[in-house]
Design goal:
Elements: E1 2-4, H1 9-17, E2 22-25, E3 30-35, H2 39-49, E4 58-60, H3 64-70, H4 75-84, E5 89-94, E6 109-113, H5 118-127, E7 131-132, H6 147-154, E8 160-162, E9 173-176, E10 183-186, H7 192-196, E11 202-203, E12 228-231, H8 235-251, E13 256-260, E14 273-276, H9 283-297, E15 304-308, H10 316-326, E16 329-330
Parallel strand pairs: 1-8, 2-8, 4-6, 5-9, 10-11, 12-15, 12-16, 13-14, 13-15
Antiparallel strand pairs: 2-3, 3-7, 4-7, 5-6, 9-10
Length: 331
């Protein structure tokens, strides 16, 4: 894999035009990009990631003209675009015939967004095509928030990656605009509370699922190789449960790692591997650190990782959605 800098986007855009794949930074996580209208390129994305073919891809665009080229725009879409684009918001819209079925899991809908990242926008503009880009990792693993994460997973699988910064650390929020009422299918960088100010919107539940219109709905995601246990409950009860579980694992000689917060890290034994993910007063910091800490703890030769939970409010929805997907059990 050749690592490109921000001044070498022309090399990356030419690769996209030729049907090759390029990893690139967005404001959320790193994406693995290919021409969204090129069936061969899309097939490569699924092959490289080991991604199930029925898991639709998010198509990245850089202009409203490009959006109109691939999707039918609704009134609610116009309202949300005006407020949140470019930014970490993906919209599910009815797709146009120019988009191959494989890009959208053979549905009549398309997941599309305009990233808020100079490198991503320049790459799309120079390539001259919408770019389909799931996270640039092996399917199911923690999403990549640095070029080193991309190299860990895809170093021998693609030819190019562009180095750059990621700001948010969790993926985009996905909103379905093809049903009677707007519906959040995946929580992310734009919160439910922010969306509610613009449109009358509801949160998806599993009972609503008829078709998998968005990534992150069906399969286990974001998971380290080491089993992850998610501790729930009020703060003091959660700390108590974690310490009891640590005692139980110690009795059988298993190595435990703890991912806690600044407020609680001191309440766990010093003879185990423990890391703070940030402060509960700043969930943006927590979200930015999440995938990096999961990857770092996964290298510590542990038998189990226990992580604290967060209130499902604001960005906490997005954090918890990922932890629930990544964990093998909850206590």
């Amino acid at each position: 894999m050749r690592i490109l800098n921000a001044h070498e986007i022309d090399i990356a855009s030419e690769a996209i035009k030729k049907g090759e794949l390029v990893a690139f930074p967005t404001e959320t996580v790193y994406g693995l990009g290919g021409d969204a209208l090129n069936i061969s390129a899309i097939q490569k994305i699924f092959e490289v990631k080991g991604r199930p073919i029925d898991n639709p891809l998010i198509v990245h665009i850089n202009s409203l003209d490009m959006l109109e080229h691939v999707a039918y725009i609704t009134e609610d879409a116009e309202l949300l675009i005006e407020r949140f684009w470019p930014g970490p918001l993906t919209l599910i819209l009815k797709k146009k015939d120019i988009v191959p079925g494989i890009t959208c899991a053979n549905l009549d809908t398309i997941a599309v967004r305009m990233p808020n990242h100079d490198i991503a926008l320049k790459l799309i503009k120079k390539a001259g095509v919408p770019i389909a880009a799931p996270s640039a990792n092996l399917s199911g693993k923690p999403s990549p928030t640095s070029i080193s994460h991309v190299m860990e997973d895809l170093n021998d699988k693609i030819n190019y990656a562009i180095d750059g910064k990621v700001n948010i650390g969790v993926e985009s929020t996905v909103v379905d605009l093809t049903e009677e009422k707007p519906l959040i299918l995946r929580h992310g960088g734009i919160t439910f509370e922010e969306l509610k100010e613009i449109v009358d919107i509801e949160i998806f539940t599993t009972r609503d699922m008829k078709k998998v219109k968005s990534p992150g709905m069906k399969y286990r995601h974001y998971a380290p190789n080491t089993p992850l246990v998610l501790a729930t409950g009020k703060l003091n009860d959660m700390v108590f449960k974690i310490n009891k579980l640590i005692e139980e694992y110690n009795k059988i000689g298993e190595n435990v790692g703890i991912i806690a917060t600044h407020e609680t890290i001191h309440r766990y034994p010093n003879n185990i591997k423990k890391r703070s993910i940030g402060t509960r007063d700043n969930l943006y910091q927590v979200s930015k650190n999440l995938f990096n800490i999961l990857r770092e703890m996964d290298k510590e030769n542990l038998d189990v990782i226990i992580i604290e939970s967060f209130e499902k409010k604001g960005l906490g929805f997005a954090i918890m959605e990922r932890l629930e997907k990544a964990s093998v059990s909850m206590i």
